[in-house]
Amino acid sequence: MAGIPPPSYYHPTSAPPSPPASNPPSPSPSPLPSSRHKPRRSGDLPPALAALLTIYNMTVRTYGPSAPEALSIEDFLWHNHFSQPPVFSAVHTAQITHGRDNPETIQALHSLARNLSDKQDFATALALYTICLSRETRMYGNSHPQTLRSMSGLAFAYQNVGKDEDALEMYERALGGWGDVVNVYTVRARINVASIYADNGRFEDAEEVLRRTVQEAGGKLGGGHESTKLAIHNLGFLLRALGRCEEAVGVCECGEWEDEWADCPLLQN
């Protein structure tokens, strides 16, 4: 099974709306510890590749991934940008040996995209996930677990190059495909959706998504599961950043965080 995208932690960049003057002012959100925040690593694709990828996406949206127009651009995209560098050799060999849409070729492409994402080469990973997703859609359909995993991988790449709207759209497609299933992929996707909301000042939406995720993950995966803990931690950090430290401590119930939160003004009384 392919790995899931690494988690994305909150780092709200702006304070929530100021309260009415008649109420005592709330403390400004505290910066989250750097060890808890995975910074974005923006990277630009070469202009020719970026332009071709845009045309490819538009063609797939208009005609579908199996249309001759889409296949023609996909082949041109691959052979002109990904067939020569050594890092792509395993995928290129698989494609020559087994064919473009063979499961082994698709798996090799997915693994390479994931590997580049792990190395924070999100721009190249984005391009490869785009091709991979089209191939998986052709072979497996929109609701196959492999297709849905690539949707999440592509969404994570979009998120880390600053394309939040595209990331949200892709996360929503993936979550819609999973339906009522609760697993590590859906939990991580919702955590990242909440992260995007928080980064864009939609704190109430972020909190709502995280509370639901904590409840569902705890019920299906268990409170001790890594993904459940991650959702709880992110909810705690969000509440702390909004100055609601007592709530945050109540959510997390984690003594090991006491030193990290010692500077919270609401806990110093």
Automatic annotation (TrEMBL):
<feature type="region of interest" description="Disordered">
    <location>
        <begin position="1"/>
        <end position="44"/>
    </location>
</feature>
<protein>
    <submittedName>
        <fullName>TPR-like protein</fullName>
    </submittedName>
</protein>
<dbReference type="InterPro" id="IPR053137">
    <property type="entry name" value="NLR-like"/>
</dbReference>
<feature type="compositionally biased region" description="Pro residues">
    <location>
        <begin position="1"/>
        <end position="32"/>
    </location>
</feature>
<dbReference type="InterPro" id="IPR011990">
    <property type="entry name" value="TPR-like_helical_dom_sf"/>
</dbReference>
<dbReference type="Pfam" id="PF13424">
    <property type="entry name" value="TPR_12"/>
</dbReference>
